[in-house]
Structures are given as C-alpha cells and as structure tokens.
Amino acid sequence: SFEGRVEVYHDGKWGTICDDQWDDRDAEVVCRQLGLSGTPKALSWAHYGQGSGPILLDEVQCSGNELSLDQCKKSDWGQQNCDHIEDAGVSCDPFTGTDVQLCQSDAGTVRLAGGRSPSEGRVEVYYNGDWGTVCDDGWTDLGAQVVCRQLGFR
Asked: Does this chain's domain 3-91 share its CATH topology with 109-151?
C-alpha cells in the first residue's frame, strides 16, 4: 500500500512515468501527494514491473517541496523518449527512519495525536514497533517545520 509503480491520470487515461531524472525528491512529492508520511525512495528500471498503455510523463524534476507532481518541472504530457522498462516507482516506507534527529533518536512514521484538528497535536513517532512521544529538549520551529512537511502540510 506504500510502494509501487507510479501511474498518473491525464486526459482520460492512466499512464506511467519515465525514470529519466527520477530521484528521491520526486518520490517525496509522490508520497506527499498520496498522503503517505514514510521515507520516500525513488526506484527506476521498472522495479515494480512494467506498465502498459501510454507513458505520460518524462524528465520529472521536483525540488521536493511541491504538493503534487503537477507543480514539478517536467516534459509536456505525452512527450517522452522511453520504453516501459524505464517505468518509475516509489516506496514511501513508513517503517524506516529518516535523517532527522529528534531527541537523539531516528524518527520513523510521524503522527499528531490529541489535537483539536488533524493539523495540530502532540508529535508521536513510530519506531521499533511502537508509537512514542518526542521530548521537547532542543525542540524549535525548525523541528516543527520538518514534522509539518513530513505530514504534507505547508
């Protein structure tokens, strides 16, 4: 449910994305667009199998901050020079750590709990099979920005 070949819907058709320029920044946008907060990893060379039908996007180059692939630099729809052996894939693995250090431990999947709305609450991380809280030692706006971004908020 958190990994596979990336397919996009455009002009009444589902199609694949060519892996030219495909990297973890593109994967980060796909994970965000799907509402997944795991560790984004781009996969190339039809890692999850070759698709069928049209190849709709090529040369996708996201900065990693976009909310959807539509906002990324890319070729025009349908303009590509690829075969399905180059279909792009993504893993948004919720069970691996990120590079962010929160209170001296690697943070995994993040959630907010106990808030009045989905966009606020106590920060909790999933690590080694359990949910736990994050201590506030050294907690700054920068840490909050990282969590908000990981959860798909601006």
From this structure: yes
Alpha helices, H only, the chain? 24-33, 141-150
Q: Is the pTM of this model over 0.90?
A: no
Banded model confidence at residue 95, pLDDT cuts 50, 70, 90: low
- The CATH code belonging to domain 3-91 is 3.10.250.10
DSSP state of 85: G
- The DSSP call for residue 151 is T
Q: Tell me: the pLDDT tens digits for 110-152?
A: 888 888 887 888 988 877 677 888 888 888 888 888 888 888 7
Nearest to 86 by CA among 124, 60, 112: 60
Structure tokens at 112: 């907010």
Size of the chain in residues: 154
Per-residue pLDDT reduced to its tens digit, 61-75: 999 888 889 899 999
Q: Round the CA-based radius of gyration of the chain to a whole number and report it.
A: 17
Domain covering 109-151 assigned CATH 3.10.250.10 in the classification: yes
Q: Is 86 helix (H, G, I), strand (E, B) or coil?
A: helix
Question: In the block, which residue shows the tokens 């700054």?
Answer: 140
